Amino acid sequence: MVRFATLSAVVCAFVAAVSASPVASETLERRQSYTGRGTYFEVGLGACGYTDVDTDSIIAISHDIYNGGEYCNRYVEIKDDSTGITQYARVRDECMGCDADAIDMSPSLFQSFNEDLSVGVLTVTWEFMSEGWSP
């Protein structure tokens, strides 16, 4: 009977330890921030296959990151480094001429950083939100 009680205690301790184990690192999503140029473009039919208009909060990401559309419809958080204003937008296009850390924004998104289009370029820090996230 003592052996059974000891064995039961060991099994219970093992089950408790296993169920409290951390999530494997390969299942966690690593978020990376990018800092680069934020410009604007006249939107239309994007590389993700959607037709958008200038008033939609969308961006185009560089060819280096686009990766065949892996991030289409994914939300990003964008912060204007000079003002601290933060906005959210969806990836809907690929920017062939953008540096890896740069993004192209719809005109209304660009203006939402309290900037006139004549400014042309902002310095922004941005990152992908978790898949399935929306504002």
UniProtKB/TrEMBL annotation:
Domain of life: Eukaryota
Signal peptide: 1-20
UniProt feature coiled coil, ranges: none
InterPro entries attached to this UniProt entry: Expansin_CellWall, RlpA-like_sf
Entry keyword Repeat: no
Alphabetic keyword roster: Signal
Ubl conjugation keyword on record: no
Protein name: RlpA-like protein double-psi beta-barrel domain-containing protein
Protein source organism: Laetiporus sulphureus 93-53
